[in-house]
């Protein structure tokens, strides 16, 4: 827990078949391999276009995606304002965010590597472990 990626950086799957990135608009996407521009899936929510209450006009990159100790995934703007929050199943012990090689899904796993929740698109089926 506590790992994060910032706009312009990516997280690679173990065998580098996919990469998870957050772009300068705050959109989360999974692309094929290390350099391809082909998207496997994306959130299609450009957070950079959303107004931030009490902070009009100051919603700029970099955006940071982080897996937090309270079992949430957050995306924050350059001022630290919360733009997106995803709650994941909590439980005792650490969890980690991984990008799976077999289908390009972003997966939250427990300390034993068991899938708690996954999102993305793969094998003709929607998100799920």
Automatic annotation (TrEMBL):
Gene3D superfamilies: Bulb-type lectin domain. InterPro entries: Bulb-type_lectin_dom_sf. It comes from the Eukaryota. This is Bulb-type lectin domain-containing protein. It comes from Tetradesmus obliquus.
């Amino acid at each position: 827990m506590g790992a994060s990626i910032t706009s312009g950086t990516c997280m690679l799957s173990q065998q580098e078949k996919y990469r998870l990135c957050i772009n300068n608009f705050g959109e989360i996407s999974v692309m094929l391999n290390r350099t391809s521009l082909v998207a496997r899936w994306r959130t299609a929510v450009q957070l950079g276009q959303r107004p931030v209450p009490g902070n009009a006009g100051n919603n700029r990159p970099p955006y940071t995606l982080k897996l937090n100790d309270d079992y949430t995934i957050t995306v924050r703007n350059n001022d630290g304002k919360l733009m997106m929050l995803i709650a994941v199943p909590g439980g005792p012990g650490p969890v980690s965010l991984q990008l799976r090689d077999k289908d390009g899904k972003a997966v939250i796993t427990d300390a034993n590597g068991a899938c708690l929740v996954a999102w993305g698109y793969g094998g003709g089926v929607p998100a799920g472990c």
